Amino acid sequence: MALTKMTQVELVNELVEETGLSRADVKRVLEALEQAVVSNLQACIRTTVAGVTIEPKLRAATKKRMGRNPQTGEDVQISAKPASVRVAARIAKKLKEQAPSVGKLKANL
To answer: If DSSP states are collapsed to H, E and C, what string results for 54-92?
Structure first.
């Protein structure tokens, strides 16, 4: 059994109750937040939202090298890979400390 998932509609409803804003206003805020994170990511700007830092990271290029097929033991050539960009997300310590205990998580699985 998987953990329960909060949908965007449920999140909007929860924020409407907590803030007193209209549903349309909350949706606009969430869309603007998403657009801000995306535009910052495209501009190579690190963004922290609610204890989560989102940033572009460079994955270095790899050179062509020799490897071994573990099944046959045969030497094989591993091709080179170009550098690429990945999106990294780091969780703040304050947020990590709020994670549930192992027992509580197992009970919800």
So the answer is: EEEEEECCECCEEEECCCCCCEEEECCECCEEEEEEEEC
Sequential pLDDT tens for the chain (109 residues): 578 899 999 999 999 999 999 999 999 999 999 999 999 999 999 999 989 999 999 999 999 999 999 999 999 999 999 999 999 999 999 888 888 889 888 888 8
Residues 6+ apart with CB under 8 A from 69: 75, 76
Residue 65 near residue 78 (C-beta atoms within 8 A): yes
Burial of 73 (0-12, 13-18, 19+ CB in 10 A): exposed
Residue 63 in contact with residue 79, Cβ under 8 Å? Answer: no
Report the alpha-carbon distance of residue 65 to residue 9 in Å, rounded: 49
Give the residue from 54, 63, 103 showing the smallest Cα distance to 83: 63
Nearest to 58 by CA among 93, 94, 34, 82: 82
Question: Contact at 8 Å (CB) between 26 and 12?
Answer: yes
